[in-house]
Every structure is written in structure tokens, then in C-alpha cells.
Amino acid sequence: MLSTNKNFEVIIVDDDEMTIFLHEVHVKENGFHSAPKSFYNGRDAIDYFNTYYNVAKHYCILLDINMPIKDGWDVMDEIMNKGMDRNVSVVILTSSINTADRIKAEKYEMVIDYVEKPLTIEHLNKIKGQEKFQSYF
Known about the structure:
Layout: E1 8-13, H1 17-29, E2 37-39, H2 42-52, E3 58-63, H3 72-81, E4 88-94, H4 99-106, E5 111-116, H5 121-128, H6 131-134
Parallel strand pairs: 1-2, 1-3, 3-4, 4-5
Helix pairs in contact: 2-3
């Protein structure tokens, strides 16, 4: 079942065009969301949140860590600092195998998963199965 719930948004943030394309395909084909929004750097994602954030919505961000301009840590810090983290869930999608990154990610309450790229249908199914997302599918 495809999520078209207006109170649920999926946001993909990655600096690699092919990665974004593949993640968009998986998100749509799996029925996770019909229209994910994608950004090529953290600054653009932050600008989107600053403009369009809605407390009535739940946001699932598929977030790369290492990006130019603003990285994934900057995105999460900005969301937290502005008090927008209560209805945001983050899946870290990274090529980093650095244990320090995984440990740092665990310190963010909004991070619900840490996945080494690429995103798979299995990962999306795991996320869909979490209680906080079940009502959207």
C-alpha cells in the first residue's frame, strides 16, 4: 500500500545524484511514499524545514552524513535546536563504516536506524513495521 498520507513526508538528503535517484525509486516502488522530497545538501534541507515545517506532520529523513555545505550532523543539530525534532525520524544512510559515526548517531533520539548504503527494500519494510509509522501504511 502506497503512503499518500498528507501528514507524512519522506525527505532524502544526499550529495550524490545517482544515490538520490535510487533511493527515490525504492521509496516509491516499495510504497513507502509516493512523492519524496530530495535535497543535494544539508543547507537546502534545513531551508526546507525552516520554511515548511509543520508540527502536525511526521517527517522521515533518509540522511547522508558526509556532504558539502552542511553535513547530516548539521541537519540534525539544526532540527533539534529549533525544536522540530519531536515529529522527525531519521534513518542515517551512509557509506561510512567509521564506528565513531555510528556511536555519534546513537546520541540523537530522532535517529531510528543507521544503514550502510545502499537503501534496500528490506530496510524500508523494517521502517514501515515500526509502530510510529504503521498508521501511514
